[in-house]
Design goal:
- Helix content is 55%, strand content 18%.
- It is an alpha+beta fold.
- The strands form four sheets. It has a five-stranded mixed beta sheet with strand order 2-1-5-4-3. A five-stranded mixed beta sheet has the order 11-13-14-16-15.
- A hairpin with a 3-residue loop joins β15 and β16.
- The longest helix has 66 residues.
Length: 605
């Protein structure tokens, strides 16, 4: 993962003591967090396992109770099926009405009615047989009417006890077919109370849990959803199937246990939302928070204390160095420790003693000589001698009626005035424009006006400051390597001084032969013999940082464009005064030239 530059710079500029504190705290917190995470995860797993074991135990106990009821009713059906009285009743073919009625009331009714008194879950017991010609109350029914019962269509061709559930009625039927040979002669059915059979299972379902029972075909025969999820009466078959699929497909939002009943093939599910299972785990985490906070506070306090102890001498040394940087040569920090910091303090002290000795020996003894040499050098490069010489040349050109020489002389004078700019390193954009105009005036004369100059100047940037003589090498390159190399067509040089957001854009563009972009990119890294683009680029980056510099764009036969962006900054009074001085002197020289011209003209007449 890549660290963002802003964070990296912030950490880089942070105090060493804060860095050390951060590292100490991080080094302590990481193992503590891992330990807490592992302990919490392990305890959470144990609690979840315990919760699932409790659910499984409850479901097992409840399932055993329901299983025992199912076994009882299955045994009752088997008992009735093989009862001699029931077998006689089924096998009798031609009973008269009196004998049949006596048989029904004295034998069948007690046999089929008495179990209800022992089992309140039984709603009725019915025998459907071919031997029964007329329905007797609700217990004895002709076999021809069995297909009208709700459970008959759901029966399989089997002699064993079959369990059929209708959750909408709701009823449960335990049914057994009776065959003589391959022909069905009777059907015995025990109808049970749905709610009483499943009441034990419903009782173990709490507000945070839900339950579901599926038959052997996977159909939902009982379901009670988690409270607040969906009301029981609104559960449709589709919704029940969805709930079943969520459990069987391992839905992560639910935790469940399952139990199978082998007698009737029912599957019991008891489930809870995972959030309910995790609530106990969350309680443990909450109880751990005060201990975690206390540990973090202790780590922070120790980290701050240790970092302060370790960096105390470094901070004293840094403060002493800052005072030295401001001009003081006194060393106040000292250390007698044998570690790297003590060695660094003693080395600094030794270095300052040596510097003080050298300053006393070299600087103080020779400072007077340097001042005299500087004054002599200043006198040698005094621009007044140059300006006066150019003025004499200009006057002599006017006397000889050499207007072209006069114009070149004035341009040269303007060029040096704007270039020297009273010793200022930074000049206004307006001063830079005047300097380039003077330089180009001279170049136009030297080139017999064979190129055209186009200016794009934004008045708003004229008062901004730029480094002195920034564009002159670029313009010189554009003429020498651009326009001078163009053999056909019009030669055009374009100069731009415009605002570009928070920057001033200076650009020089020619329509010369151009070059490949790869070659153009190398121009700012190539060290020329003179003051080339690399020097200009290095100068800009020293002044404004690596964000700024020269950008060269070029295409074969389409020319070259050199762009420079400089952050906008208004000129101070001293820089403005230097520019105004150059312009004023240029105007004075121009007026003098015009006067001399008129004076010379008068004499000729």
């Amino acid at each position: 993962m890549r660290i963002p530059a802003a964070i990296k710079n912030k950490f880089k500029n942070m105090k060493y003591r804060h860095k050390l504190t951060l590292l100490l705290v991080t080094a302590s917190l990481v193992p503590m967090i891992l330990l807490v995470w592992y302990s919490h995860d392990r305890m959470s797993s144990l609690l979840r396992e315990k919760e699932m074991e409790d659910m499984s135990s409850i479901l097992e106990q409840t399932g055993e109770g329901i299983d025992s009821q199912i076994e009882v009713f299955s045994s009752l059906l088997n008992y009735l099926t093989y009862s001699p009285d029931i077998e006689d009743l089924i096998s009798e073919k031609n009973m008269d009405n009196y004998y049949a009625y006596k048989k029904y009331t004295e034998v069948a009714d007690p046999l089929l009615s008495v179990p209800k008194s022992y089992h309140d879950a039984i709603t009725q017991i019915q025998l459907f047989a071919n031997s029964i010609k007329v329905r007797h109350e609700y217990t004895l029914v002709p076999l021809s009417e069995v297909d009208k019962e709700w459970w008959y269509d759901k029966l399989a061709d089997d002699v064993f006890v079959q369990w059929v559930v209708d959750s909408k009625k709701p009823e449960i039927a335990a049914v057994r077919r009776i065959y003589e040979g391959k022909a069905q002669t009777a059907v015995l059915c025990v109808t049970l109370d749905y709610n009483k059979i499943f009441q034990p299972f419903e009782n173990i379902i709490s507000t945070e849990s839900g339950g579901m029972i599926l038959d052997k075909d996977g159909n939902v025969i009982f379901q009670k959803e988690i409270e607040g999820y969906v009301s029981e009466g609104a559960v449709s078959d589709e919704e029940r199937m969805v709930s079943r699929n969520m459990l069987e497909n391992g839905q992560k939002d639910y935790a469940y246990v399952k139990r199978e009943n082998t007698t009737c093939g029912w599957s019991f599910y008891l489930y809870k939302q995972q959030s309910a299972v995790d609530s106990s785990v969350s309680g443990i985490l909450v109880s751990e928070i005060p201990l975690i906070v206390a540990c973090v506070a202790i780590i922070l306090i120790l980290g701050l204390s240790f970092s302060r102890i370790f960096t105390k001498k470094i901070e004293e040394l840094t403060a002493n160095m800052n005072r030295v940087n401001q001009g003081s040569r006194e060393v106040t920090v000292d250390s007698d420790s044998g570690d790297e910091i003590g060695l660094l303090v003693r080395s600094f002290r030794s270095m300052m003693d040596e510097i003080n000795r050298l300053i006393h020996e070299v600087y103080e003894n020779k400072i007077a000589l340097k001042e005299f040499e500087l004054k002599a050098l200043t006198a040698q490069i005094n621009p007044h001698f140059l300006y006066n010489s150019l003025s004499v040349i200009n006057w002599m050109a006017i006397r000889s009626n050499q207007k072209e020489i006069s114009r070149v002389t004035l341009s040269l004078s303007m060029f040096y005035r704007t270039a020297l700019s009273k010793g200022q390193d930074m000049v206004t954009v307006d001063n830079c424009i005047q300097n380039i105009k003077a330089y180009l005036d001279i170049q136009l004369v030297m080139h017999d006006n064979d190129f055209q100059v186009i200016w794009d100047i934004d008045p708003e940037v004229k008062g901004d400051i730029v480094p002195k003589l920034l564009l002159q090498p670029v313009v010189e390159n554009a003429l020498e390597h651009g326009l001078d190399m163009k053999e056909e067509g019009e030669k055009i040089l374009k100069l731009f001084f415009v605002k570009d957001g928070e920057d001033v854009l200076l650009a020089v563009e020619d329509n010369g032969p151009g070059m490949e972009q790869e070659e153009a990119d190398k121009l700012v890294t190539y060290q020329a013999s003179g003051y080339g683009l690399k020097n200009v680029n290095d100068r800009m980056q020293l002044l404004y940082g690596e964000k700024y510099g020269i950008r060269v764009l070029s295409k074969i036969t389409q020319g070259t464009r050199v762009e420079m962006r400089i952050p906008r900054e208004k000129a101070d009074e001293k820089t403005i005064a230097a520019g105004e001085f150059s312009a004023k002197k240029y105007l004075q020289d121009s007026e003098t030239a015009d006067g001399k011209n008129r004076e010379g003209g008068g004499k000729s007449e």
